[in-house]
Amino acid sequence: MDIEISVNTKNDVMRERFLLGAKLTGKYGFPQLPAVIVHADGLRSAPFNLALKERNPKECICHFFIDDMQFERVWNNPDKYIPALQNFKYVCAPDFSFYEDMPLSMQIWQVYRSRALAWYLLINGVNVVPVAGWSDARSFEWCFDGLPQQSSIAISSVGCARDDLSKRCFSSGYSELIERVNGARVVLFGEKIVSGNVDQFPAFSNEIQKRIKRGR
């Protein structure tokens, strides 16, 4: 889908500028992201909420698999954070959360925001790794739109290992991702609860993981 993007709202409150130069794809017009291959050897993971304090960003892959409240500011004012994100070896696309009990329109909006902001970061010099997420089987019709073929794709298993149902839902979406995105090279943040060849990173720092285990 090739359309000319224009800004229709005062002060661009809908962030239409994020789509400039993008090719839109799928039923809902998500930006099509280009492929990127992550070379994971020697990399460390860095959550966005700690990114500004990272001393060696070229050794890190920055990710947004954290509470949405900690990175909504990037949607509201990405230009403020682009200089810092440009310093990282890789930056995973922002992962705006969506769940099966949300209205479908809200779920679609969250995936749209992820693709649109990823595109904007990319055209401003950030080395963006596409991110995939899903809710239930209904989301499979659109949640993978805009993801490139033959590319590294980042996903997170955080919160998906707490019970058998969560594990099955994650596994179902993972299988769908592999089927729909040809040649996907998965970069997993969190516990490895699926089989296959993936590059795995911890979602949290060692100190935060210790706190989680202690329940603090």
Describe this structure in words.
The chain is α/β, with parallel strands linked by helices. Helices cover 27% and strands 14% of the residues. A 4-stranded parallel β-sheet has the order 3-4-5-6. Strands 7-8-9 form a 3-stranded parallel β-sheet, with no helix packed on it. It is globular and about 50 Å long.
In summary, what is this structure?
This protein is an alpha/beta fold and 216 residues long.
List its traits.
three-stranded parallel sheet; 9 strands; 14% strand; globular
In the sheet with the most strands, the strands line up as 3-4-5-6
Measured by DSSP, the beta-strand proportion falls in 5-15%
What would the principal axes of the Cα set say about the shape?
A: globular
What proportion of the residues is helical, as a percent range? 25-40%
Number of helices: 5
Main beta sheet: 4 strands, parallel
Q: Output the structural class.
A: alpha/beta
Summarize the SSE layout with pairings.
Elements (H helix, E strand, L loop, with lengths): L23 E2 L4 E2 L12 E4 L12 E4 L8 H5 L1 H8 L4 E3 L11 H20 L4 E2 L22 E5 L7 H17 L4 E5 L9 E3 L4 H9 L2
Parallel strand pairs: 3-4, 4-5, 5-6, 7-8, 8-9
Antiparallel strand pairs: 1-2
